[in-house]
Amino acid sequence: MDSIVENVVVKDGVDQETVDAVREVGGAYKHGWSTDIEMEYAPKGLSPDIVKLISEKNEEPDWMLDWRLAAYERWLQKKEPEWAMVDYPKIDFQDQYYYARPKSMETKPKSLDEVDPKLLATYEKLGIPLKEQLILAGVDGAEELTGAPRKVAVDAVFDSVSVGTTFRDELLKAGVIFCSISEAIKDYPDLVKKYLGSVVPVSDNYYATLNSAVFSDGSFVYIPPGVRCPMELSTYFRINAENTGQFERTLIIADKGSYVSYLEGCTAPQRDIAQLHAAVVEIIIEEDAEVKYSTVQNWYPGDENGKGGIYNFVTKRADCRGDRAKVMWTQVETGSAVTWKYPSCILRGNETQGEFYSIAIANNMQQADTGTKMVHLGKNTKSRIVSKGISAGQAQNTYRGLVSMHPRAKDSRNYTQCDSLLIGDKCGAHTVPYIEVKNNSSRVEHEATTSKVDDDQLFYCRSRGMDEEEAVALVVNGFCKDVLQALPMEFAMEAQQLVAISLEGSVG
Amino acid sequence: MLTINNLHVKLEEEDKPILKGVNLTVEAGKVHAIMGPNGSGKSTLSYVLSGKDGYEVTDGTVNLNGQDVFGMEPEERSSAGMFLAFQYPVEIPGVGNMTFLRTAVNAQRKSRGEEEMSAAEFLKIVRLRAKELKIDADMLKRPVNVGFSGGEKKRNEILQMAMLEPKICILDETDSGLDVDAMKLVADGVNSLRNSNRGFLVITHYQRLLDHIKPDYVHIMADGQIVKTGGPDLALEVENNGYKDLLAGVA
Ligand SMILES: Nc1ncnc2c1ncn2[C@@H]1O[C@H](COP(=O)(O)OP(=O)(O)O)[C@@H](O)[C@H]1O
Ligand SMILES: [Mg+2]
After folding, report:
1. Partner residue opposite B94 with nearest CB, options A456, A467, A481
2. How far is B105 from chain A (nearest CA, A)?
3. Among residues A62, A60, A69, A339, which one has the least CA distance to residue A214?
4. B73 and chain A in contact, CB less than 8 A
5. ipTM over 0.90 threshold
6. Three-state SS at B67
7. Residue A415: is it exposed, middle or buried by C-beta count within 10 angstroms (0-12/13-18/19+)?
8. Which of A361, A387, B176, B179 has the fewest CB atoms within 10 Å distance of its CB?
């Protein structure tokens, strides 16, 4: 494998004052509160019995349990990967809860009206209305506001279980299935059997294998042939319980000629002990279909000394199976103590397209190792990567990307743009692109820049009345513009504010 | 309104004095012009007034409407009514001109305890102001100063000034690099902001700007000091005879 490794750590030129003033972001995390709710836990630790118990709690058929147990056996034989540029204390997998659900969810509510008001209030407080209502949001200047307000359907996952999915009936009328994966296993076993594990095989990697054994819930989406999903779909993940890992599983299937835009949001309370999150997202895109998958990841990042926070080990992959299938990943990663995440595109069909837009912000002691894999298998396939990494405090931010052109992937193209922005001189930015081209008609372009927040820009903003934090937020949002524009409108605004919040205290 | 008293400034990094005792008072409603050879300290004065890093005030005071300017952060000075139209406006990639303006207007309002300007009201005003400066819709959308021509950058500074409605406007060589038409536009923009509550400090190399923006006083700056003060005629004298004779006369 050809590998170009370019390590850039800029350490000069920023004055001590700025550095000294790098303060905590912990206080700035807005979702650090927790919900006091009666929970039901499976016993701590991981064993075949726990796997059986999770399966039983979800009232799963035997084939599912067998699948899980096989994954568990695989996991026992696997080793935790160490190649990423992240450094964290060894996780004791026996000291975790693998299943936690609100007591009130023991018997599944039939509709949102039956859901515990405390749970509904939790999401309300997070700004995620589970009432079926229109979500109104605008971006930027008013003149940029276009189009009518749109509906967004939400699946809300609280610790290990889905508490409810909105707009289900309306979606079903269009033929769209949107429900929790636990329900899909029962109600649509054929679809689940056919597709589950077909993009991310059980033994793909350590965390994916773990997830396959113990995933408790997540979302399921099926868009039938030729259907344009009538609204945005979204899943909102909340880790509430202490010492509890969240292992969600998302399966999205876009059948021939269909389209869907899917959003994912995540938060967790502020806790001193790090928590584990190991999700798997699989997307199957058939001929002429298109999927947009956007994430705003705002897990608790830990305090300014690196205490607590979410360890986020995620496997996300989209398989463009049919010709002309398209996928677009957009991610805004601001939270987590440790992020390990590489949303990937398998460009299997001819003329398929994969795009990856990413903003990764790491402040204080956060560590992010994130990027993408573009695997070109079909002819005339195209991929585009735009990555914006921002580091502040003592954070380390690594872009790790693989672009691979197989012998059969004739006349394919990739364009990668990878920009890093540094705030202060104790943080680091690293770019690790791997490029393998196995045919001579394909082209791969890679551009990378590293810069520091420019003092003249900050002074210019301040001389117009913005305080330093506002100025930094504005300049950084400008730096991220290409990616922010790729987000659905409802998310772009939230993402802009998040950029500002996650950089609070990064300058002084 | 703005009182500069015995201002001494040196570079923070090295012991190089740049301003060596500047005394100047700009009254509300008046236009003061500062002329002087390259390197005499005009831009430094404008930067120190607006609070840029890298300079150290070794002596003297600056007072804006009773407030000690050196006790204020740049953004506080701005909200208190100080505005500098930069000699070299800064580019901010990815940030729409309009977004920048609105953020600035609302930041100032917020710090003064006023309500934010609504999107609709802002749009109305900005369009009106932009039209006067022949700034089209496209220029309002483009990222701040990125790819702007010299003239566009300067007009954009005046647009910011018009939107922020400052009490004291400092213009640092706003005329340099402008053709006659562009200069006329900029001058008209400035003149339309002239009123009895607002003071101006216009830094320029050339008399021609002062044909359009009629100053009340003209000061000549040389080697970090104001060496001569007069009426509009003084600018003409510079135009005709250069600084050499003038400075020789002073020395
Ligand atoms: N940041 C700086 N670093 C080094 N020299 C500077 C700096 N700022 C100003 N100077 C020097 O101070 C003097 C005055 O500069 P300036 O204020 O730009 O003059 P003017 O605007 O009148 O042309 C010049 O000799 C210039 O080289
Ligand atoms: Mg100058």
Report:
1. A481
2. 8
3. A69
4. yes
5. yes
6. strand
7. middle
8. B179
